[in-house]
Amino acid sequence: MPPISPQQTLKDVFGFDDFRGGQQAVVERVLDGHSTAAIFATGAGKSLCYQLPALHLPHLTLVVSPLLALMQDQLAFLARHGVAAASIDSTQDRDTTREVMERAKSGELKILMVSVERLKNERFRHFLRQVQISLLVVDEAHCLSEWGHNFRPDYLKLPDYQRDFAIPQVLLLTATATPTVIADMGEKFAIAADNVITTGFYRSNLELLVAPAMEDRQQQLINWLKPQMQPGSEAPTIIYVTLQQTAERVAKALAVQGIAAQAYHAGLDSQQRDEIQRQFMGGESPCIVATIAFGMGIDKGDIRNVVHYDLPKSIENYSQEIGRAGRDGLPSTCLTMAGRDGLRVLENFVYGDTPEYAGIYRLLEEIAAAGQAPDRQWEVLLNTLSRDTNIRPLPLKTLLVRLEMHGIIAPRFAFLAEYRLRYHIEPSELVNRFEGERAAFVRLLVDNIPIARTWGSVDFDRLHQAGLAQQVDTSRARVITALEYFQDKGWLTLEGKRMTDVYEVCQPNFAIETLASQLYDDCLTRERIEIERLQAMLALFESESCITRRLAEHFGDRTFGNSTFGAPLDPVQGRCGHCSVCYGHPVRLPDAPPQPALSEADFQRYATPLIERHIEQVGQPPNAQRLAHFLCGLTMPIFTLLKARSLNGFAVFEQRAYTEVREWTMRHLAS
After folding, report:
1. 237 three-class SS
2. CA end-to-end span of the chain, whole Å?
3. Residue 37: strand pairing partners
4. Handedness of CA 27, 32, 37, 39 (dihedral sign)
5. Is 573 helix (H, G, I), strand (E, B) or coil?
6. Residue 36 — φ and ψ, nearest 5°?
7. What is the spatial distance between Cα 197 and Cα 195, in angstroms, rounded to a whole number?
8. Is residue 191 helix, strand or coil?
């Protein structure tokens, strides 16, 4: 019997008669053994590019995805089509994870999906070395590149993991990669230019409108949207905003006007978010007012409007967000109600992520000290380290990955620092279930884990000392194994928290000052790139030539005749015919309202409260960077200790340029 062709699998398993866009080119290259990159417009069918080859490849396809919601949607699709796929994620119990691993080892599983963070776990990496893997798939692969948006530091290690697990080829998938990012991705994984497949970014059914934001932007939105929200024929709409409070305020204003809108943001609990998303996907709720917490993994074909009430974070974010409109191919509108009033907030978010030089220096001092210990092990509780160095968690993660790339540290394993338990049977009954040395061991556990009301905390040092006194092995590993076994049997509930990562210090004698300066310069370079990205986005919206063409060219797409979605561009050279500029309405974005000059009185009134508390609690005044963060409302770990939010002056200048505030504070501190 001849082997089944990919075309046959496409029809028999997935129910499609033909490939779309560049799907066939990608599938053929992967099945020919080439590492490949698929740069497809949002909604152009990237997932099939790994799902179909996985059924033809001899071993496991390992998919790294940045978001649990993306995994769950794709797993549900694969389950409906009878494909053996599973994920390992933090929501699972140990039995489920163990079962998935066994299925992978036995060869039953064709696709395994994990987050990139899972690969930091040494036990998981040990498991992967026991499994033959045909293909590594990197979803949202632009996260690999520091030149792209949504850079994820852990993605930088993926090329090392490919070598470590002896995976012969990779497939990179993304919808938002500029030529620079594509080149960077290709270089990291040695992907030949011929194996980079781009479908083109032109969407003939999307109307791209830019409307200068009026003074009453809320009423402007209501006037535009209300005619499309007649009862029984509401146009499914996503409205993107920057801040959580804006989402709540705008949703409430729309509801007052009879438009059934719901706010969606990270401040809601996960159950609320899931229910709001379910209602929107099912057509029960026609309008979502959301921060960018909403949208990843959303595949609703009939979204008719995507509105940017505030400026998006970048051209890439804009492209990704408008890409959720009109996936059914029908006409849809993408409206940007743009003004420069929100620019300062976006810029300040960028400056807020740049750590202090002193924090980087402190981090390196701690690593150097750990490197002098006999085992060179460095235990890291991320939140504690963040507090001690005054570096926010995300930039701190980035620094740790950079230090791995420099060969200073290497991750070894992770464990939970704290455990507590609650018995479901009498402790004496638990002891009676064992005999001999095991009974003595369990008796030690029971006697040395005191219960306060319902719960008892596990003190590993106390258990270790008790074990030494009675010559019983009460090592941490044995205690955890026993407690997990008791939980599996239903005899108790065990809860763990405070994940601790253990690193080995590979180069203990590095030059702290030299490396601190290098890392700080890297952070400043990143800051500059992000600010330039915001300026590029403003230039797009103020374009005097076709916005659709400018957007496509940003992503290196100059072949408008080969559109993935419908007809090519209008015969008039370089014009789409369905954007603001082509309608004859190029815009100049209104400036933010002018701010009065900062004065000596402002400094005394707003800066002094933090300076006084800082001297009282820390023993010295804050530096200009720390003071500017406070005045612009940008969080720092030390602000929790100082209870800075309660002080007069916190966030008083959040609408001002961070650089202006920092220079102003620098002058006053120096005088």
Report:
1. strand
2. 86
3. 172, 196
4. negative
5. coil
6. -140, 150
7. 6
8. coil
Q: Which residues contact 49 (CB under 8 A, 6 or more apart)?
A: 23, 26, 27, 30, 38, 40, 171, 173
Q: Please give the structure tokens belonging to residue 469.
A: 């006194």
User: In Å, what is the CA distance from 285 to each residue of 234, 263, 275, 362?
Assistant: 9, 11, 10, 50
How many whole angstroms separate alpha carbon 580 and alpha carbon 654? 31
Taken in order of first residue, the domains within the chain and their CATH numbers are: 6-199 (3.40.50.300), 206-347+530-554 (3.40.50.300), 373-507 (no CATH), 600-670 (no CATH)
Encode pLDDT of 368-414 as tens digits. Answer: 999 999 999 999 999 999 999 999 998 998 899 889 889 999 888 77
- Cα Rg, the chain, nearest whole Å: 28
Using one digit for the tens of pLDDT, what is the confidence trace for 116-171? 888 877 678 878 988 999 999 999 898 887 666 677 778 888 998 999 899 999 99
- Say if CB 65 and CB 46 are below 8 A apart: no
pTM: 0.79
CA distances from 492 to 227, 422, 434 (A): 59, 6, 16
- Report the candidate in 547, 528, 546, 545 with the shortest Cα–Cα distance to residue 537: 547
Q: Residue 398's Cα: distance from chain center in Å?
A: 13
Instruction: Identify the CA nearest to 243 among candidates 349, 96, 90.
Output: 349
Parallel, antiparallel, or unpaired: how do β-strands 60-64 and 196-200 relate? Answer: unpaired
Given a contact cutoff of 8 angstroms between Cβ atoms, the answer to whether 311 and 343 are in contact is: yes
CA-CA distance, 89 to 577, in Å (whole number)?
A: 46
The residue count for the chain: 671
User: To the nearest 10°, the Cα dihedral for 171, 116, 60, 4?
Assistant: -40
Which DSSP letter does residue 424 get?
S
In this prediction, residue 652 has a pLDDT band, given cuts at 50, 70 and 90, of very high
Give the amino acid at 407: G
- Compute CA distances 138 → 16, 49, 67, 156, 321, whole Å: 24, 12, 12, 11, 20
CA atoms lying within 13 Å on the CB side of residue 574: 7
Phi, psi of 134, rounded to the nearest 5 degrees: -85, -35
Query: Tell me: the pLDDT tens digits for 33-68?
Result: 999 999 987 767 889 999 999 999 999 999 998 776
Task: Tell the residue number behind the tokens 């002058």, with chain if given.
Answer: 667
CB atoms within 10 A of CB 563: 21
Any alpha helices (H) in 85-157, and if so which ranges?
94-106, 122-128
Alpha helices of 574-670 — where are they, by DSSP H?
A: 600-602, 608-618, 624-632, 637-642, 658-670
How far apart CA 114 and CA 275 sit, in angstroms, is 25
Residue whose tokens read 């994620």? 89
In Å, how far are 139, 344, 595, 652 from 659, measured between CA atoms? 36, 10, 14, 15
**Do 392 and 637 form a contact (C-beta atoms < 8 A)?**
yes
